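Customer escalation, tier 2.

The customer says the design service returned an amino acid string that "doesn't look like it belongs to this structure." They asked us to rerun it and document both sides in this ticket. The original structure tokens are below, unchanged.
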């Protein structure tokens, strides 16, 4: 399960990584894509986080000032003290 943070505008992420960003289509409709942040620049948007990480080779995008939000993935942790019934 993935949860998302609130949208941020005019502030950059603290951590390097992939974030969800809000682009706009030519019809001025919202288009959500994932983009890699290297600590200084945003890179081209992609449909998946994995694709976004690979687009670093293409160089930074011109769209540097779009809203962004973090995506948090919940990880299941096995309780070592649990017993199987």
């Amino acid at each position: 399960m993935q949860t998302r943070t609130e949208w941020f505008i005019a502030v950059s992420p603290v951590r390097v990584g992939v974030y969800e960003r809000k682009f706009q289509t030519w019809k001025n409709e919202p288009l959500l894509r994932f983009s890699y942040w290297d600590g200084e620049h945003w890179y081209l948007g992609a449909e998946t986080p994995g694709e976004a990480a690979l687009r670093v080779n293409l160089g930074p995008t011109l769209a540097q000032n779009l809203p962004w939000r973090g995506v948090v993935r919940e990880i299941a942790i096995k309780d070592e003290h649990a017993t199987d019934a």
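Tier 2 assessment: The sequence is consistent with the input. DSSP finds one helix and five strands in the chain. Helices lie at 49-54. Sent an explanation to the customer and offered a walkthrough call.
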